[in-house]
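Input record, target 12 of the design panel.
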């Protein structure tokens, strides 16, 4: 069924529909051999609030975005190659149910599904697609992943100096190397973290800055040296710090749609059909 001309045409129409839903702001998604495996809504835990996202799983990539009009219009498209993904199943928290962690080289974040069954379906489908991709191509899995930032509500004072209380003029900042919540005084340094961005200097805490410089010292076999730039000139805000919190209320979950890989049909399943015989790329 997966090789049938009818399936190929229907799959291409589904892929193009996803591509069109992001309008001109999205990147092209159509590619020979790329199959849409599943789609659905999840909650993504941001730094300041929980946001509803649309999630699309293909045989080689994971795509997510913000919802403007459900089932019709999405924005802020993000594309993650499956070889750059690592998943971690998590226990429920008081606030976040049916959650798991998605790790990538540049960013790691928590998401949750409406039920345990859907969470299990997402994790097993993603892992199966990733495994098939690794077997069928020369792609190499990532070895370094970005740390997951600690949520703002998890700390009321700096996790490094343990004295500065957050609030008012004392804003919370995330160290992009360890994920800790730190105050401004403990996070004045900036450094390049290769697996997140090859050239951009990101906010890090003083503890990580010291460790990074010590590693450079050991790697070079001489002193790390001091930059001729001043600390003020070295300042380069990270995208994470400047990211705007999306407006709008959290919407209602819509059940996920999955491809029945046995019959080649696409439907909303009440009992999730875990992936079987997904074709290699």
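The sequence produced for target 12 reads:
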């Amino acid at each position: 069924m997966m090789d049938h001309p009818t399936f190929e045409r229907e799959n291409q129409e589904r892929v193009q529909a996803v591509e069109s839903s992001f309008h001109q702001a999205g990147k092209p998604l159509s590619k020979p051999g790329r199959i849409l495996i599943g789609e659905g809504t999840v909650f993504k835990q941001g730094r300041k609030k929980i946001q509803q996202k649309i999630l699309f799983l293909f045989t080689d990539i994971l795509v997510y975005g913000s919802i403007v009009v459900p089932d019709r219009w999405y924005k802020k498209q993000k594309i993650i190659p499956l070889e750059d993904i690592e998943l971690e199943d998590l226990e429920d928290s008081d606030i976040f149910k049916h959650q798991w962690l998605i790790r990538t080289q540049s960013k790691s974040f928590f998401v949750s599904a409406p039920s345990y069954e859907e969470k299990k379906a997402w994790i097993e489908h993603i892992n199966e697609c990733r495994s098939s991709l690794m077997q069928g191509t020369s792609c190499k899995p990532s070895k370094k992943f970005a740390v997951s930032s600690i949520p703002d509500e998890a700390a009321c004072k700096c996790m490094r100096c343990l004295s500065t209380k957050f609030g008012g003029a004392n804003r919370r900042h995330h160290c992009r190397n360890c994920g800790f919540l730190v105050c401004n005084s403990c996070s004045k340094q900036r450094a390049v973290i290769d697996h997140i961005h090859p050239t951009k200097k990101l906010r890090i805490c003083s503890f990580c800055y010291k460790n990074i410089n010590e590693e450079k010292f050991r790697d070079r076999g001489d002193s790390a040296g001091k930059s001729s730039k001043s600390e003020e000139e070295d300042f380069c805000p990270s995208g994470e710090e400047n990211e705007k919190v999306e407006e709008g209320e959290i919407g209602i979950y819509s059940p996920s749609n999955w491809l029945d890989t046995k019959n080649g049909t696409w439907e909303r399943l009440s009992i999730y059909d875990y992936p079987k015989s997904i074709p290699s790329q």
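Residues 223-250, 269-281 have pLDDT under 50 and may be disordered.
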